[in-house]
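Porin family protein
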Amino acid sequence: MMKRSLLKSIAIACLLYAPFTFSQNSDIDETEKKPIKVGVKAGFSLGNLTDGNDNIYTKEYESKSGMDVGVQVTFSINDLISIQTEINYTDRGGTRKGMQPAPSDELSGMLNQFLPLIGMPLVTDQNPLYADFDSEFDIDYIEVPVLVQFGWGDDLRFHIEAGPYIGYMLCATQKTMGNSEFYYDEAGTNEVVVPNPYFDPTNPANGPQFVPIGAQDLTADTDITDDLRTINFGGIIGLGLSKNISDKSSLFLNARGSYGFTAIQFDETFGQSHIGGVVFSLGYAYALD
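Tokens:
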């Protein structure tokens, strides 16, 4: 909660400060105005999903690596302050391994026909089946940040940056991998069994009344785009270093972190995850006349 409040405060401050700096810049003599820089960049991202409610569907997710590419335009206000706008494609998400709620719609429908007869609760979204497998959320966004940068130096320049961003989700996929038995409990102690079609109470040699279903292949790619909110709003903080390679050209390195203020799921049953990550980028910028 502290992290979210800090990013919100930074984002609001940047939005309030940007118009003021632009207004001051209007009084600068034309000969003193700084050039506009355009740039391209590519980088490596570590996306993650966080849910403070310890939801069974979203807990224990770890960072997922991906790519981050984009274009940017930087407006210099003075020697210290710049405003930078960007359009970025970024790959977010998370991974989870081990016992977790399992995709089992067909199996659940079959089990729910006889579970009440043996005094067991129905399988529902709130009371799912569990299995031991790997799961990965892969969520692609177009993100548009507006950042305030404070920089020092000329030929070699260091800067810090902060500001809000808005993200538009392009697609989202849940990838599952592995083979596993199904269980009624997260600890994996109560294995799912089904009625034995060969059971004959008059002939015990045909086996018990219920038998395990055996390990099932859980490998699948499931489109979950409609289950998640399309728009995500958040904040960014970061730092960077640039080096001039000519009168108008420079190379730069960036490291930044982001956090989404909006929970991405529509249905709170499946969690209230916030998406964010850390991005490391290398880019090239060119100063326009």
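Residues 2-25 form the longest helix (24 residues).
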